[in-house]
Amino acid sequence: STATASPPTTTTTTTTTSDDMEALWMPFTPNKLFKSSARPRVLARAKGMHYWTTDGRQILDGTAGLWCTNAGHCPDPIVKAIQDQVATLDYCPSFLFGHPKSFEYANRLVSELLVPDTKLNRVFFTMCGSTSVDTAMKISLAYHVARGDGTRYRFIGRERGYHGVGFGGLSVGGILNNRRAYASCMIPGVDHLKSTYHRDRHAYTRGEPEWGGHLAEELDSLVSLHGASTIAAVILEPVPGSTGVLPPPRGYLRRIREICDAHDILLIFDEVITGFGRLGRGTASEYFDVVPDLITCAKGLTNAMIPAGAVFCKGNIYDALMNTTPDDGSPYIELFHGYTYSCHPVAMAAGLATLDYYRDQDLFDRAARISPYFEEGMHSLKGLPNVVDVRNIGLMGAVELEPYPGSPGRRGHELMERCFEDGVMVRQTGDTIALSPPLIVSEGDIDVIVDTISRNLRKLR
Ligand code: PMP
Question: Looking at the domain covering 80-360, what would its CATH class be?
Answer without folding.
Answer: alpha beta
